Amino acid sequence: MKLHILDTHFQGMAQVTAVYLVVGPEGPVLVETGPGSTLQAILKALDGHGFGPADVRHVLLTHIHLDHAGAAGWWAQQGAQIYVHHVGAPHLIDPSKLLASATRIYGAHMDALWGEVLPAPAERVTLLYDGDRIHAGGLTFTALDTPGHAYHHHTYRLRDYREGELAFTGDAAGVNLPLVDIVDLPAPPPEFHMETWLRTLDRLDRAGLDIIYPTHFGPVRDVHGHLVALRGLMVDAVAFVAERRAAGVERDALLAEYIAWNRARARAANLSAAAIDRYEAANPLFMSVDGILRYLRKRGE
Questions:
Q1: Rounded Cα gap, residues 55 and 142, in angstroms
Q2: Mean pLDDT of 58-80
Q3: Which of 17, 44, 114, 274 lies in the 20 to 30 Å Cα band around 37?
Q4: What is the model's pLDDT at position 157?
Q5: What is the largest distance, in Å, between two alpha-carbon atoms of the chain?
Q6: Which is it for strands 2-7 and 175-176: parallel, antiparallel or unpaired?
Q7: What is the 3-state secondary structure (H, E, C) of 40-66?
């Protein structure tokens, strides 16, 4: 098995969003697709490894957010089989509701951010449940239900004789960019749920993983340390937003305070202004504020 990290160069930034190319004895498998806006970058990267679109018969998606799966319909229309959480699958087959929701958030920036989002033919979409095994490229991946960031989220476990137990975690293990040495929390609406996500982190921590591959971006070898850091950040971020909300701070002012809080945290980790821009591109902070606020309202706070 060979594993290659394909950089989408999302919004012109290196090492922010990955597509993973896993080459097994029977051919290539993609984990994630990136958005349609980065499809040409991925095709060029694939070509650099000797593969074209017709060679890719299997695509695994951790979840259907557009930065992870926006190009899935295109790959399905080329003949690839798409494997995805059963809750998210209908929104690949008919992406109209997904696009309407995203448009309410991103408005006129939709095309520049995400590019074309095509429907996937139903026969090209395989619905997955917790514990399902996917045989692709001569390899066997196991789907682990890992909600919290989104209810329709799977992590894919795979054993490699060199690396040991590895997993592609999507956003379930948060964000950790190689050029930005800081763990970050992506908590977008409408599905962020702290208690559920904390249980997911416990599950990942108990899984005996030697290495994880978040989509944002690349390998993390100190799995336990990374998950502990994400847990602490999640609890602190929710407490920060809850405290400011209870004090009557309105959303826009709260967002400004949350950004300042995060940037102070980043500066304490000796990040440069450019590095801060990079991690905010991978995880827009307004999304996390809105996600946490919605979670608190649903919790009755």
A1: 22
A2: 97
A3: 274
A4: 97
A5: 59
A6: unpaired
A7: HHHHHHHHHCCCCHHHCCEEECCCCCH
Pairing of strands 58-60, 81-85: parallel
Given this model, what pLDDT does residue 197 score? 97
Element spanning 253, H or E? helix 251-268
Note the helical H segments in 49-140. Answer: 66-69, 72-77, 89-93, 96-106, 110-114
The angle formed by the CA atoms of residues 183, 169 and 70, to the nearest 5 degrees, is: 100
Nearest partner of 84 among 22, 152, 34, judged by Cα: 152
* Coil, helix or strand at residue 8: coil
DSSP 180: S
Per-residue pLDDT of 81-135, as tens digits, reads: 999 999 999 999 999 999 988 888 888 888 888 999 999 999 999 999 999 999 9
User: Could you confirm whether domain 2-231 is CATH 3.60.15.10?
Assistant: yes
Residue holding tokens 């089989």? 81
Domain ranges of the chain: 2-231, 236-298
What is the model's pLDDT at position 68? 96
